[in-house]
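ok so i was messing around last nite and threw this chain in just to see what happens. nothing serious, just curious
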Amino acid sequence: MSQYFAKDYTGGAFELYGTGHLIALTIIAIFCFSFLYFRNRWGEKEKKIFRYTVAVLLVVDELSWHAWAAFWGLWTIQTMLPLHLCSVMVWASAYMLVTKNYSIYEMVYFLGIGGATQALLTPDASQYGFPHFKAMQTFFAHGLLVAIPIYMTVIEGFRPTLQSFKRIIIWINIYMIFVFFINLAINSNYLFIHYKPPFPTILDLLSPWPWYILELEVVGFAILSILYIPFLIKDWRAKQKPAIA
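result:
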């Protein structure tokens, strides 16, 4: 059992789109689709239990990652500060689940789904394949980051608006500038805006630094647009319905 928490894992490296990866993605997809089943079956009591339970699990999962890294001497301010987008979304999501704060929901919907989906498709699990703690923790956290805003939308009835879309575009650019200067100050690479990460990501398809940052703006805008399209279509259809006399 101890080898599943070891720093030097002997069970094999993570295999991108291998059996373990595909099983994990399937489980996350089933979990998200299950909200359609529970949408008309859960009352306020069940919803509250679910929100609080998931919030606690998300925080425990995040803290366990920090504890594991600290135990093995891997915790550094250059890599472990909660500045990566998904790390920010973990704490924002937990807070939003407890408070049902709409402003946080906007952020979690666009950036949680958009960022975590990329992390699930090209995860930073490196030499830690399933069932090592690092692989399990990575997919548990990012899976919840996708599932939580879907839950809030499908079951709690929240939805983003066009103004939400605009606010998030502005917010993420301001945040990126903030992180850029932190990276300069402590020689880190949060948000991967100083160089491309050493594991496969969508950045590998883009130009060398610094041009890929500009291309990321386009990619990010496209991803956020795709996430808003279902609501754009819904609003358009609503306008097409004839008014009832």
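not much to say yet. Residues 192 and 221 are 17 Å apart (CA to CA).
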